[in-house]
Amino acid sequence: MVDIAVTKVKTPGTLPDPDKLGFGHYFTDHMFVMDYETGKGWHSPRIVPYEQFELYPSAMVLHYGQAIFEGMKAFRTDAGEIVVFRTLEYLNRFNRSAEILCIPKTDVAVVHEGLKKLLETDKRWVPAKHGTSLYIRPFIVATDPYVGVKSSDKYTLFIILSPSGAYYAAGFNPVGIRVEDKYVRAVPGGIGEAKTPGNYAASLRAQVEAKKEGYAQVLWLDGIERKYVEEVGTMNIFFKIKGEVVTPALNGSILGGITRKTVLELCQDWGVKATERQISIDEVFAAHEKGELEEVFGSGTAAVISPVGELSWKGRKLVIGDGKTGPFSQKLFDYVAGLQYGKVADKHGWVEKVAKV
Ligand code: COI
């Protein structure tokens, strides 16, 4: 057992209105914190009140972006249990990102213990309404006060919690996506597969331009040939073509989504052919022309499944399934949400019970 000290807030906060949560605006009373120093390793895991923290203006993360994060969710089931979806998968991916950013790996067991204790402490903040959840944001930042370029000798790990509703204002409704042909997000050999702030900073310019044209997100093409589909906005992407589900193969520049993995595993369970391979944007448009493109959807932790109703590429517009949510996207969404809220039996052992309210 890990010794995790708990310091509680003096005045617990007021819970937000569950109908007006939005995404990522509210934070719970406490957070989990742990420090790292070269020679000492990760130490002092603790739960403390959620509040501002001190950092030198020279802290390395502020200059060179040495940081990583994760995004996972806790749900309140109808039976009053607090559950987390595929916890260890996320914590292992956190360490994979650490490796890529030269951040010392964490002991997954300690972070897991810390997360469970934090959720027990703040369980009253897990919203009950269907479609809401407690978004869990673990992250690590480099704190060394030094402005030379190198990997830091000091880091702080945090886990903060945010009661949230749908990620997109559109909720589970088809979104319009612009295929990005000017900017690229990442290239193989880079850091595209890590969950690190730089990848999200790199996406902003395209996102702003797409929004101006009325699109919710951009679809990224590969950074070399600008031909193959990579991912969409902050999500992985799937195409259903003539009954077969296709998603870009992980190539080092695509984030290996946990929801992506869940979709692939469910396809296998349901006897739906699913293939991870290169898929060009030309192929997508050609499939549509032949009437073979049945559905397009994004997958991610925040949005779960996000149907794509329209794709725009170099002035060509393609409307998928009359711009309506397809039956397969709907089935996936219902199944995954059903698992998370305890309405569907968890035969894979994906749902971890962490507290009871
Ligand atoms: C997710 O779907 O988990 C994401 O990556 C979105 C997050 C950056 C808000």
Task: Please supply descriptive tags for the structure shown above.
single chain; 357 residues; alpha+beta; D-amino Acid Aminotransferase, Chain A, domain 1; D-amino Acid Aminotransferase, Chain A, domain 2; 2 domains; globular; binds 2-OXO-4-methylpentanoic acid
Architecture per CATH nomenclature, i.e. the level-2 architecture of the largest domain: 2-Layer Sandwich
What is the overall silhouette? globular
Give the count of helical stretches.
8
Strand coverage percent: 25-35%
In total, how many domains does the architecture comprise? 2
Q: Cα-atom Rg, whole angstroms?
A: 21 Å
Distance between the termini: 23 Å
Poorly predicted residue ranges:
none
CATH topology of the largest domain: D-amino Acid Aminotransferase, Chain A, domain 1
Helix and strand string, N-terminal first? EEEHEEEHHEEEHHEEEEHEHEEEHE
Class by SSE composition: alpha+beta
Find the count of extended strands (DSSP E, 2+ residues): 18
- Kindly provide the name of the CATH class of the largest domain: Alpha Beta
The CATH superfamily label of the largest domain reads Aminotransferase class 4, branched-chain amino acid transferase, N-terminal domain
Which whole number gives the mean pLDDT? 95
